[in-house]
Amino acid sequence: MTELSELTPRKRQKKEQIMQKALELFASKGFYTTTIPDIATSLKMSVGNLYNYFKSKDILAKEIIKYISRYLGQKIRVINREKISTKEKTKKIVQVYFETAISEPAMIDYFLRIYLSTREVFKDNCEGMMCVDDFVTEFMIYFEDGINCGDLRDQDFYSAFGLFMGYLGGMVFLRGEKVLPKKLESYVDEIAENIYRALRKE
Q: Domain 4-199 class?
């Protein structure tokens, strides 16, 4: 599969347009009930033309999760490069994730509900964390930098990553279920504080 960065601007824009529309349809209709013809029709494309960009729905699904991983990874990379404390980085990461959940809900919904719960679709060429390596790598850098500067305790990466993502995913899920009494963004400070306290070096 050709990487987005290797495409002409026009083809890259069209691929991103297809992925965005697929995201919307997967979120509204469900992954299994959404077909390639559904996506093509919604974009006023022929099915044959869409297949020129993505040979199957499974390939499209994998490209979408890679796209989301790059999108979120780039945002966290900016935070990682700032000359600020680990506590401040924690808050900014929480803020970025919540802002994305608000502005691009289909993107986070796809990550939480399809990628994490539909693993059979991603079993080939997407094993482990391969399809989300941009996102995971930035979290590794966040943890490594936090440990090296003495802010975070040295612990297994996956347990620390799971704790962080558990807070983020849990709050976004509660928002989606419409049970939060306040707006999601109003929880940034409290959630960031809870995460940092759970990870910090005593």
A: mainly alpha
